[in-house]
Amino acid sequence: MSLNIAIQVSSLGQRCGIYTYAYRLEKYLNKLNGINAFMFAERIPRDKKADVISLQYEPGLMRPQTLDKLLQKYVEPIIITAHHTGYLEQFFQSIDGLILHSESQLKAFKSEPWDYRIIPHPAIVFPKKDKKKLRRKYGLPTDMKILGTAGFIAGTGKRLPEIARHLLKELADDEYLYFITSYWKGGDFGYEQAIRDTVKRYGKENQFRIDTDFVPEQTLNEKMQCCDLLFAWSMATEPGSASGVAMDMIGSYTKLVVKDSPHYSIPASIDGVEVGRADQKEFAEDVLKLFRTGDLSDIPDPRKYSWENLVKDYVEYFEEFL
User: CA 192 to CA 205: how far, in whole Å?
Assistant: First the structure.
């Protein structure tokens, strides 16, 4: 007997974190025996059958009115994945199940959902490779320490031009800053040029690189493995969301420092991950201190957080509603 899972994603085919998540969910579900998963945006295709619907909710992509219409439209069990919790509590009586990515998201609600499962945002994990060989493969310096970050260049509250300024201003001669930051569905808001202007202002052209192309998962993972230290900072301060790209950074085995924020509560709880102060300037100071004097040992085996491992938790939860 097969399980047919319809994955609803409003940003189908677009460059954004929600679609990336839905794409990976479909991909790894379909690697399991007896699972048939497919994506849709507004309506399930007539030639497709759904036993359960996995709905990707983020209020910036789906207005509450749209969510209400979907809940009323389908009789199949609907399990919402809360990429953000905004406006969601009003639908607790209508939804069948709820997936949260961290316990901190519960703090966004006045009352507890009647049925939910906490599944950490899965990470892309590939085999650990030799750092110097990877640097040669991607044309990165082998004689400098590399500090990096990854994710979309804009649209996620990272404010990269500002943090680039804080870091570049203090970057030592033997240090290299690497942004693995692809263009978002909304472009880059002028961020790339602003960052390049800052690089030129401080004379760091030979100590900086930004890759803005959207690359396959393994390429992203290998580029992150090239770094000695990765960092993740976002404007997010409320408990409504959870970082996906920080989990991908963990999947590269590379030492990571995250902002002290509920947005990073799961990665911050993982052995080997450091936490920096919330203020961006102070966070940059913490990053550089760790980069220069801290323990940059690899993150212990991150495979327990991989899509291959955690996708089974989704199936287990979905099956409860059959």
Answer: 14
CA 232, 236, 165, 269 dihedral sign is negative
Interval 81-138: pLDDT, tens: 999 999 999 999 999 999 999 999 999 999 999 999 999 999 999 999 999 999 999 9
Q: What is the DSSP code (8-state) at residue 241?
A: B
- Residue 41 is classified by DSSP as S
Has residue 166 got a pLDDT over 80?
yes
DSSP 258-312: EESSGGGHHHHTSTT-EEE-SSHHHHHHHHHHHHHHS--PPPS--GGGBHHHHHH
The reported pLDDT for the residue numbered 207 is 98
Judged by average pLDDT, the poorest of 11-20, 41-50, 53-62 is 11-20
Q: Which amino acid is at 213?
A: D
Q: Which domains does the chain carry?
A: 3-122+306-319 (3.40.50.2000), 131-304 (3.40.50.2000)
Residue in this structure with the two tokens 């406006």, named with its chain if needed: 87
- Residue 69 neighbours by CB under 8 Å, 6+ apart: none
Placement of tokens 């976002």 in the chain = 234
**Which structure tokens are listed for 252?**
């590269």
Angstrom distance (rounded) from CA 89 to CA 68: 12
pTM for this one?
0.95
